[in-house]
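ok so I'm stuck.
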Amino acid sequence: MSVPAMKPAFLPVLLIEDEPAVMAYVRAALERSGYSVVCTESGAEGLRLLASEKFLGVVSDMRTPGGVDGADVHAWLARNCPDLAHRIVFITGDIANDDTVATLRKTGAPCVEKPFRVQQFISVVEKTMGKAP
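replied:
not stuck anymore, here's the structure
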């Protein structure tokens, strides 16, 4: 008697974004492409979620309120979840900022500049995290 193959549960993407309109846009784009999404408005809350739950990857704004920015999230991942540190995509409207440039060089993580088109964003997410089921 054969047992039907179970499809493995697909982990959600953690979205860290403090602007409600951008969060809604990115969440909708990810969900329409088949990803499940967990949202938070701050890097500090993102770190709490990362410490207690499993995620496919992270999409993080470079600048979020609360004293924890995208660079801090990546540094935490590198120390605590090294496999996930390679599955982070930054989004920012401040690509010319010296701190942003330094973070992108240091981490090697992909960055999508706001405003962006859905297909451009999803293409980067798929290359970084894999396609949704």
